[in-house]
Amino acid sequence: MTHSMRTDTRSSYLNSDRDWRDSATRYALLPLRVFLGVTFIYAGLDKLTDGAFLKGSGAGSIGDTMRAVRDSSAIPALVDLALRNPTGFGYAMAFGELAVGIGTLLGLLTRLAALGGALISLSLWLTVSWASDPYYYGNDLAYLMAWIPLVLAGAPVLSLDAAWRSRKRQRAGGF
Questions:
Q1: How does pLDDT run across 104-120, given as a tens digit for each residue?
Q2: What distance in Å separates the CA atoms of residue 90 and residue 8, rounded to the nearest whole number?
Q3: Which of 76, 78, 85, 173 is the most exposed place for a label (fewest CB within 10 A)?
Q4: pTM for the complete prediction?
Q5: Is the dihedral of CA 128, 152, 103, 157 positive or negative?
Q6: Are the beta carbons of 47 and 101 closer than 8 angstroms?
Q7: What distance in Å separates the CA atoms of residue 101 and residue 143, rounded to the nearest whole number?
């Protein structure tokens, strides 16, 4: 009788909790990715389809919103920069949110998309939400914190980034 040495160290019948925990860990960022991706796509589309938002002035316009928060923002110069061309800034914000949302949802250049989302959230926190009192009433700070795990970890599963990494490893002969 021939005996062989076992090389696998995992035994699913002894470590079923570990297998569940490993899967949960791998997929832990997926709900956050879906939420942020869908939210930013929605925000971008909402801005592009709102007839009032993309105007320089008037009720509900980006221009009036920026003028209203200018004196209470942390960085009034940032608001002044946006006010030089409020319509252009509104389009940049809407298309930026769309790009961030699509990249995050698909897992396409996820870390870069998440960094873009974090920068958008940071700029909104320092301008529009800065005067929220207490600070936790403003949602932009919470969005900023939600982007950080995706900046750090990317999209390890169910993403175009993961598919590209897998394909690259296969071409290199690794598994």
A1: 999 999 999 999 999 99
A2: 56
A3: 173
A4: 0.84
A5: negative
A6: no
A7: 13
**Amino acid at site 143:** Y
**Contact (CB, 8 A) for 105 and 41:** yes
Length in residues, the chain: 175
- Token pair for residue 26? 């791998």
d(CA 55, CA 91): 10
Give CA–CA dist 67/36, Å, rounded: 28
Other Cβ atoms closer than 10 A to 53: 22
Q: Which residue has the tokens 């529009």?
A: 128
150-161 core/surface letters (b: 16 or more CB in 10 A; e: else): bbeebbbeebeb
